[in-house]
Each structure stands twice: as C-alpha cells, then as structure tokens.
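Weekly sync, protein design subgroup
Attendees: M.S., D.O., the rotation student, P.L. (late)

Item 1: inverse folding check
M.S. brought a backbone from last month's batch and wanted to see whether the design step gives back something sensible before we order anything. D.O. pointed out we never logged the input encoding, so this time it goes straight into the notes. Structure tokens as presented (52 positions):
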C-alpha cells in the first residue's frame, strides 16, 4: 500500500474515533457522520485505484 493511501486510511480511522467520541459526549450530529462516510468512500476509492 502506497504511503498516501496508508496516510488516508489512518486519517479516516482517526476521524471515526473522533466522530464517535463527539457523538458519545455531546450528541449525534448527522453531518459529522455524513462527512465520515464520504471520507471513508474516498479512502476505499483511493485504495481501489492504487491496486489497478
């Protein structure tokens, strides 16, 4: 896995942890989850593009 894809993967995981912590402490915010899903899809797309 290239360094850029690996960095994006770890940033996505860190984002998931932050969104979860925020949702637990303050309350769920739909826009945060939507943003995380978009970031996750971008990461999957980056990983898929690197394999071809």
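Designed sequence read out in the meeting:
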């Amino acid at each position: 896995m290239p360094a850029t894809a690996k960095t994006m993967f770890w940033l996505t995981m860190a984002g998931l942890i932050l969104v979860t912590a925020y949702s637990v402490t303050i309350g769920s915010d739909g826009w945060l989850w939507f943003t995380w899903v978009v970031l996750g899809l971008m990461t999957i797309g980056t990983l898929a593009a690197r394999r071809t």
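Discussion: DSSP finds two helices and no strands in the chain. The chain has a mean pLDDT of 83.
Action: P.L. to compare against the previous round before Friday.
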